[in-house]
Write a structure and sequence with these properties.
Layout lengths: L1 H11 L26 E3 L4 E3 L2 E2 L10 E8 L13 E3 L5 E8 L7 E9 L4 E2 L5 E2 L5 E9 L5 E8 L5 E7 L7 E5 L9 E8 L5 E7 L6 E11 L2 E9 L14 E4 L6 E7 L9 E7 L10 E2 L17 H4 L4 E11 L5 E13 L5 E15 L5 E7 L15 E9 L5 E13 L5 E10 L10 E2 L16 E7 L2 E2 L3 E9 L18 E9 L39 E2 L10 E8 L3 E9 L4 E11 L2 E8 L6 E9 L2 E9 L2
Parallel strand pairs: 26-31
Antiparallel strand pairs: 1-4, 2-3, 4-33, 5-6, 6-7, 7-8, 7-9, 10-11, 11-12, 12-13, 14-15, 15-16, 16-17, 18-19, 19-20, 20-21, 22-23, 23-24, 24-25, 26-27, 27-28, 28-29, 30-32, 32-33, 34-35, 35-38, 36-37, 36-39, 39-40
Length: 640
C-alpha cells in the first residue's frame, strides 16, 4: 500500500506528461546579452553582474578559455558525440555550430585550436569550416599527426548531407570538405558522429531525415602528400541502412590499441507498448564486418493484457526506467565498451489501471560496461522543476559524455542537470554543468559535482539567467586534466530564431574548460538503484525543497504542450483537492473563444485536456484555470 501511495505521488507531482516531441525546433527572438573574449581562472571572472562562472562548485582549480560565440543554442538534438578532441601534441581541437547573427539566418560550423604552449586559442573567435550555404551539428576527431577532422551536415547545393573535412596542414584552419557518399535518391542523411581508429581511418554514423529515418555507417581514409591534407577517400559510404530507424541517438567509438569499433544507439519502436532499448554492434576488424546486434537493456514490450487479466496496475507497469534520446560510448584500454545513457520515468498504466502511456521529466543516467554487463546509476534527478516546462527534448538530467583516464583507469561522465528552483521570468529552467567519476571501471559512481555553479533564482530576469548546456568531454584525460567544451547560454531555454517561444535569443560563448581530476571528488558514492525496476521496486521518491521539506503541490496550471501548436495542444493542471473547475481560452482582446470546462466537479490529482483550435486564426491566446476564487493563466501561441 505504501508503494502505491509513493507512485501516485510521483504521478501527481509530474510537471507534464510524455508528449515530448522528438524533433527540435527553432525558437523566438528577444533581448540579448553580449560579451567579449576572455581567458582566466574560472573562479575569478564575473560573467554577468553577480553571476561568476564558478564560485561555489567543486572545481575552483579549473580554468577556461572562450573558443568563440554563437547565437544558435542547439549544438545537438539528441546524442552529443564529441565536439572536442586532443591530439598527441596536447593541442585541443574544438568545433561548434555558430549562428552568426541574431536569428541565426547564417549558421555555419566553426573550429578552433587551444595551443598548450601559447596557453590560448590560435584563432580569435574561431574559423569557419564549411563551404555551404548553411551547416551545423558537428563533431570533431583528431589524428595522431595533429590534423583536425570536423564532421557536420551542410547544405552544399540543395538538401543537406553529412560531410567530413580535412585540414590543409595541422591546425592551419584551412579545411576541405568531402560529402560522405549516400544512396541515389536518398533525401537527407545528416547529424553525423565520428571517431578515428588506430589506423587513422574515420568512422562515421548518421541518421536519415525526411525518409525512413534509418541509421547509416561509413568509413573514410584521409589522404596526405608531403604532410599536406588532400582529401578523404570513402572506402565505404552510406550505402545501405546500418540499423533500424531511431531518433538522433547513434554514436561511434574506436579503440586506440586495436581495430575494434563499436556503435551504440537507442531503438525506438513505433508501438507505444514497445520499450525503447539501447543497442550495440561491434566490429573487431576496423568496420569490415560486424557482429550480431546486442540488446544492451533488453526491455520487453509492455504486457497490455496485464491489468485486463486482473493484474495490479503498479506491478503491470513493469520497467519504469526507459532509455531516452541520448547516449555516449567509449572503449577503455582493455577494449571494453562503456555506454552511458539517459532514462526517463515511463508508465503505461495510470492510477486507474487504464492504458495511458506517459513519460515524465524525472531522469536518471546509467552506465553499462561490456566486461561485466551490469547497470550502475551515474546520477538521478528524480524530481520535478519549479518552472512551467523544461523545453523540447529535455529531462531534468541528460546528455552524458564519457571520458577515461588511461593512467588511472578512472571513468568520467559529464552531463547537464537543470536547477530545480532557478528559472527565468520566461519560465525556462537554468541548466548546470555536472561531472562525476567512477574509480572501479563503472561499477559505482561518485555523487556528481556541479562544475559551473552559476547562481540562479526563481523568476530571474531574462538576459541574466545563464544556463550551461551542450556539454561534451574529450574521450581521453591527459596529464590529469579533463577537457570539456560547453555552451554558456545567457538566456535559459532553446532559442535560435523567431519560430517559437522558448526563451529569448542571446549571443552565447563556447567555453573550453580544463578540469583537474582532483577537483572531481571520488566520495561520497551515488546510491545504488536497480535499472530493471518495476513500479513495485521503485526507489523511494521524494520531491524536496531547499530546506529538505517535502514540496506540496496544489493548484497549478502548466504551460500547454506543444507550444506553439497547430491546431491541437494539451493543457495540464494539478488540483490538490476536489472541487468545481473552469478552464477557458481567451484571445488577446479578452474575448472568450473556447470553454473546455464549465464549473465541472473534478477530483484531486493531475488532469490533462486537449484543446482543438481548428476554427481559430494564428495568434496569441490565453488559457485560464479557475477554482474557488483562485485563477491561473498561461500564454499559448497558435501557428498555422
Amino acid at each position: 500500500m505504501e508503494r502505491r501511495i509513493v507512485l501516485a505521488l510521483m504521478i501527481v507531482c509530474s510537471v507534464f506528461t510524455a508528449a515530448f516531441a522528438k524533433n527540435a525546433k527553432d525558437r523566438i527572438v528577444g533581448p540579448v546579452a553580449t560579451t567579449g573574449f576572455e581567458s582566466a581562472t574560472a573562479a575569478s571572472v564575473q560573467r554577468l553582474p553577480g553571476s561568476p562562472l564558478d564560485t561555489e562548485g567543486g572545481t575552483a582549480n579549473s580554468t577556461y578559455s572562450i573558443a568563440g560565440t554563437t547565437w544558435y543554442d542547439y549544438q545537438t538534438n539528441g546524442t552529443n558525440g564529441k565536439m572536442i578532441a586532443i591530439d598527441p601534441t596536447g593541442k585541443v581541437h574544438v568545433a561548434w555550430t555558430n549562428g552568426e547573427q541574431d536569428g541565426s539566418a547564417e549558421r555555419h560550423v566553426y573550429y578552433n585550436v587551444w595551443d598548450p604552449e601559447l596557453g590560448s586559442f590560435m584563432f580569435n573567435g574561431g574559423v569557419r569550416v564549411d563551404a555551404g550555404s548553411r551547416a551545423g551539428f558537428t563533431n570533431v576527431a583528431a589524428g595522431t599527426n595533429g590534423f583536425g577532422f570536423p564532421a557536420f551536415h551542410e547544405v552544399a547545393i540543395s538538401l543537406p548531407h553529412a560531410t567530413a573535412s580535412i585540414d590543409f596542414l595541422p591546425t592551419s584552419g584551412a579545411f576541405t570538405g568531402f560529402e560522405i557518399p549516400y544512396p541515389a535518391g536518398e533525401p537527407q542523411i545528416i547529424w553525423p558522429h565520428i571517431d578515428m581508429d588506430i589506423n587513422g581511418k574515420i568512422h562515421a554514423v548518421a541518421t536519415e531525415s525526411g525518409g525512413a529515418s534509418a541509421d547509416y555507417y561509413a568509413r573514410g581514409v584521409p589522404q596526405y602528400d608531403g604532410g599536406f591534407g588532400l582529401e578523404i577517400v570513402w572506402e565505404q559510404g552510406f550505402d545501405t541502412p546500418f540499423v533500424d530507424a531511431t531518433f538522433i541517438t547513434m554514436d561511434v567509438a574506436c579503440s586506440r590499441s586495436s581495430e575494434k569499433v563499436a556503435v551504440a544507439w537507442i531503438a525506438d519502436p513505433a508501438g507505444e507498448n514497445d520499450a525503447e532499448n539501447v543497442m550495440l554492434k561491434i566490429s573487431n576488424d576496423g568496420g569490415e564486418t560486424w557482429g550480431e546486434t546486442i540488446p544492451v537493456t533488453n526491455i520487453p514490450p509492455i504486457d497490455t493484457m496485464c491489468v485486463i487479466n486482473g493484474g495490479d496496475w503498479i506491478t503491470c507497469n513493469a520497467d519504469t526506467f526507459r532509455p531516452w534520446i541520448d547516449l555516449s560510448i567509449i572503449l577503455d584500454d582493455q577494449d571494453n565498451v562503456h555506454i552511458a545513457y539517459t532514462a526517463q520515468a515511463s508508465f503505461y498504466f495510470d492510477e486507474t489501471g487504464a492504458a495511458n502511456p506517459a513519460g515524465y521529466v524525472y531522469a536518471t543516467l546509467w552506465h553499462w560496461g561490456e566486461n561485466r554487463r551490469e547497470f550502475s546509476l551515474i546520477n538521478q534527478a528524480y524530481f520535478a522543476n519549479d518552472s512551467v516546462a523544461l523545453g523540447v527534448n529535455n529531462l531534468m538530467c541528460h546528455r552524458p559524455s564519457l571520458a577515461i583516464d588511461t593512467t588511472t583507469g578512472n571513468l568520467y561522465c559529464s552531463f547537464q542537470q537543470f536547477d530545480q528552483h532557478a528559472y527565468s521570468d520566461a519560465g525556462y529552467p537554468m541548466g548546470e554543468f555536472y561531472m562525476t567519476v567512477s574509480t572501479d571501471n563503472g561499477q559505482t559512481w561518485a555523487v556528481a559535482t556541479n562544475v559551473s555553479s552559476t547562481p540562479g533564482e526563481p523568476n530571474q530576469v531574462t538576459g541574466n539567467d545563464p544556463s550551461e548546456r551542450d556539454i561534451t568531454t574529450a574521450k581521453y584525460v591527459t596529464n590529469g586534466i579533463i577537457h570539456t567544451l560547453y555552451q554558456h547560454d545567457y538566456a535559459a531555454g532553446s532559442a535560435v530564431a523567431a519560430s517559437g517561444p522558448e526563451g529569448p535569443t542571446s549571443l552565447n560563448e563556447m567555453i573550453y574548460m580544463q578540469i583537474p581530476v582532483g577537483d572531481i571528488p571520488t566520495e561520497p558514492k551515488q546510491e545504488i538503484w536497480a535499472f530493471r525496476a518495476d513500479s513495485t521496486g521503485f526507489p523511494q521518491f521524494e520531491n524536496v525543497g531547499d530546506e529538505g521539506n517535502e514540496v506540496v503541490y496544489g493548484f497549478e496550471l502548466y504551460q500547454n504542450y506543444p507550444n506553439p501548436f497547430n491546431p491541437t495542444t494539451n493543457i495540464q493542471f494539478d488540483l490538490a483537492k476536489a472541487g468545481n473547475v473552469s478552464l477557458t481560452v481567451f484571445d488577446v482582446t479578452g474575448r472568450q473563444v473556447a470553454t473546455l470546462l464549465d464549473n465541472e466537479n473534478l477530483g484531486a490529482g493531475v488532469h490533462t485536456l486537449n484543446f482543438d483550435a481548428t476554427g481559430l486564426s494564428s495568434g496569441v491566446y490565453f488559457s485560464r484555470l479557475d477554482m474557488g476564487g483562485t485563477s491561473m493563466t498561461r500564454k499559448m501561441v497558435l501557428l498555422k
